[in-house]
Give the backbone structure.
Amino acid sequence: MSPDLSKRCAAGGLRRAARAVTQLYDAELMAAGITITQFGILNALANAKVATQGVLGAMLSLDSTTLSRTLLPLVESGWIERCPGTDRREHCLRLTAAGRKEWRQASSRWQRAQKRLRNALGDQSWNQLQRVLDRTMKATSRSLKPGY
């Protein structure tokens, strides 16, 4: 008897899949000495150039506490630096030269993980997964708005 897929918990399924995918990427990135979460932060800053912690958290869908905890070793390693914001209360984050070098070196390992997963899924499933993930993010962000 096959399980009734309509009764499965989306959160549980997504969390299990996320843990498995995280393990795949972390295994590739281990030689670079970083995790996929840390790589995601380096990648976001490499593309944004400069971002406040709030903007960075929103880009990565990370809460402030998780982002602060993940940023700490990146700042301590000298890969990310804090810079003045638009006022005294705000500060920005940006990659240092060492951080940009680390991001470039880790990118090849990230690409290997990406290729492994894409090959395992096949192009059709990969593309379908990307569409479902995009729709899921849009649907959940709309449903979290007050009055929705």
